[in-house]
Structure to design on (372 residues):
């Protein structure tokens, strides 16, 4: 039986900051995405209860697989009514027979185990071509509408941070962002690039001991601590000028500039660096595949495609850098290093009369012991 206290939020990314190890996360997240699952694993939750389908079958979302591989049970699709009934800090008990809330039976449950996840992922993979066609059509349709806004001269807001002829590091909380930041740490310490956190990417930089120069985003997944400690803030606004994220900045008594632009906050960060004449743009944790965009609820990637076309020659994507260094040390390498280290020692020993005498003495002892 699984027992623990509930922590609940309809938006998973809003819940992450409140979770403690051993909590049971209660979410309403259809097609649980990769990044949300990685955060749930980091928080070491005891189980995840989802009011919606964790895999709807529309496309092969990675979240359930990540939780399953981490050994975190998924109680799937309990429904709207049961989800609404559970409140923060309720005491939950879960077994094969059902879900109890504060010692009262609430509903039957269905565990999404590893075999079921693999089955549903396989079924979802068979739908990928239909989804891909829709995705490409939407991308091309929006690219036609947005091309002048992106490819032409972009009016960027004035900022204090100087980027001209400097490297710019842009960090988002995507897959492998922790491992990739570790892998390029020596680069950061040596080059000292301008550091931009895309929403929660700012907190990632803080966790590594770096102070973000700029935070860019819609301000829905970055901590107050990060906003108060960074150099300056750029709020991503809609192309029509609406800027909901600015309300939070004002409530904190901070200053920020708005940047109206289509697409994602990562696109905004790249354009800001490019238009400010950055020499090189290094991306960590970026979202740039079809699955990434589907998991973010987007039907296309027009602006990102156009932005990449515009700034592409300056962009280095560090996504997956850590994978290049995994499992690279083989036993043969260790033996070779040992042999290389022993070679000069043996060479010196060969040239030393005293050590040669010692070798002869040891050889004589061995012969006497063996009766030779």
């Amino acid at each position: 039986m699984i027992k623990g206290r509930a922590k609940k939020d309809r938006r998973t990314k809003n819940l992450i900051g409140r979770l403690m190890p051993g909590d049971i996360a209660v979410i309403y997240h259809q097609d649980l995405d990769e990044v949300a699952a990685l955060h749930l694993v980091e928080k070491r939750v005891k189980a995840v209860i989802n009011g919606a389908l964790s895999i709807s079958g529309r496309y092969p979302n990675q979240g359930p697989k990540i939780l399953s591989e981490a050994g975190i049970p998924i109680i799937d699709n309990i429904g709207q009514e049961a989800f609404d009934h559970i409140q923060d800090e309720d005491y939950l008990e879960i077994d094969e027979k059902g879900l109890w809330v504060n010692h009262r039976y609430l509903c039957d449950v269905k565990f999404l185990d590893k075999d079921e996840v693999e089955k549903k992922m396989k079924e979802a993979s068979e739908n990928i071509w239909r989804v891909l066609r829709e995705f490409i059509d939407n991308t091309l349709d929006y690219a036609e509408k947005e091309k002048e806004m992106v490819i032409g001269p972009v009016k960027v807001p004035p900022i204090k941070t100087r980027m001209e002829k400097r490297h710019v590091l842009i960090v988002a909380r995507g897959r492998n962002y922790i491992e990739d930041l570790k892998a390029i740490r020596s680069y950061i310490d040596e080059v000292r690039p301008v550091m931009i956190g895309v929403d929660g990417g700012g907190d990632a930089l803080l966790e590594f001991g770096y102070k973000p120069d700029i935070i860019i985003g819609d301000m829905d997944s970055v901590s107050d601590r990060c906003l108060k400690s960074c150099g300056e803030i750029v709020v991503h606004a809609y192309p029509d000028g609406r800027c909901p994220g600015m309300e939070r900045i004002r409530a904190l008594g901070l200053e920020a500039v708005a940047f109206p632009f289509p697409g994602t906050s990562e696109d905004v960060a790249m354009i800001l660096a490019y238009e400010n004449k950055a020499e090189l743009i290094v991306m960590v944790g970026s979202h740039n595949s079809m699955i990434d965009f589907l998991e973010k609820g987007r039907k296309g990637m027009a602006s990102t495609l156009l932005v990449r076309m515009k700034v592409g020659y300056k962009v280095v994507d560090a996504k997956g850098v850590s994978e290049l260094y995994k499992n690279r040390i083989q036993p043969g390498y260790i033996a070779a290093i040992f042999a290389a280290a022993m070679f000069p020692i043996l060479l010196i020993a060969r040239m030393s009369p005293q050590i040669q005498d010692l070798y002869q003495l040891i050889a004589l002892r061995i012969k006497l012991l063996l009766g030779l």
